[in-house]
């Protein structure tokens, strides 16, 4: 990755990014603990972390929550929308509060959105509404099993 | 945020019928933007919530054990690190082999999400979804080719769907 941003990172930045992607301890002085593993000190680690966040090299540092385990229901839904009808359909789909993400993709199945609802049966209700309002079929593709969710970027 | 309606429903669900109690929820809200960058971050959170540092750590460990917290970690901005292309690769593999294959594909360094999802025959034959990130479209396609190689004879067909536009992205955050 010969990118200008990564070129500006020194070895310590890289080690911090790599190590902290794997996880962070829960303990009284966790930064000091990680700093020790990285052969640096707590103050330096905190400064570097703040700088990586300020420069948006890191988007976030903290607990990653699994929303589904907190009680929500989620599903990925695909639609095949004729290009000349896309704007109208997008407006309808995005108008539903339950639609959390919506992407246009380069494919006959060109609309892909994520529904987040309180309970699983609400997913079906929302999809019926969307199909009725748009006149196009919704292909519900709920997650049957998750194998891995994580992007580790070695730098 | 524009995602408030969706998130408020999620939060009421969290309140009504899940193992997340009010204090867990307060802790989630307090850490959604990130962990405090101070020498004793858990004590810092504890002071804000009016509980002890030990209770904060205990609750975080408990949520981690239940899978509510996947992990506490740094999330790199993959665009800033040069990974500017992403493609959703979708695969048709034998259902009876999907768990083993899904784990192997999901373990690849460039795959961020890997799921078994429902097929819709005959329109949509794909049952394994793997999001692939790389520095360019060409590189995404190379990585997809390496997935095909890994799947070997279990690879019954695949496609790559590159994103064209983000039409909505409100995320899912609990409201305070």
Automatic annotation (TrEMBL), chain A:
Description of how the protein assembles with itself and partners: Probably forms a complex composed of NirD, NirL, NirG and NirH. All proteins are required for the total conversion of siroheme to didecarboxysiroheme.
Sequence ranges assigned to domain Siroheme decarboxylase AsnC-like ligand binding in this UniProt record: 75-147
Domain of life: Bacteria
Top EC category: lyase
Protein name: siroheme decarboxylase
InterPro entries hit by this protein: AsnC_trans_reg2 (IPR040523), HTH-Siroheme_Decarb (IPR050684), NirdL-like_HTH (IPR053953), WH-like_DNA-bd_sf (IPR036388)
Keyword check for Lyase: yes
UniProt catalytic activity: siroheme + 2 H(+) = 12,18-didecarboxysiroheme + 2 CO2
Organism taxonomic ancestry: Bacteria, Pseudomonadati, Pseudomonadota, Gammaproteobacteria, Chromatiales
Pathway annotation: Porphyrin-containing compound metabolism
Signal peptide start and end residues: none
Organism for this UniProt entry: Thioalkalivibrio nitratireducens (strain DSM 14787 / UNIQEM 213 / ALEN2)
Keywords on record: Lyase
GO molecular function annotations of the record: lyase activity
Domain Siroheme decarboxylase NirL-like HTH: from-to ranges: 13-58
Gene3D superfamilies, per the entry: 3.30.70.3460, Winged helix-like DNA-binding domain superfamily/Winged helix DNA-binding domain (1.10.10.10)
Keyword set includes Lyase: yes
EC number: 4.1.1.111
Family classification: Belongs to the Ahb/Nir family.
Role, per record: Involved in heme d1 biosynthesis. Catalyzes the decarboxylation of siroheme into didecarboxysiroheme.
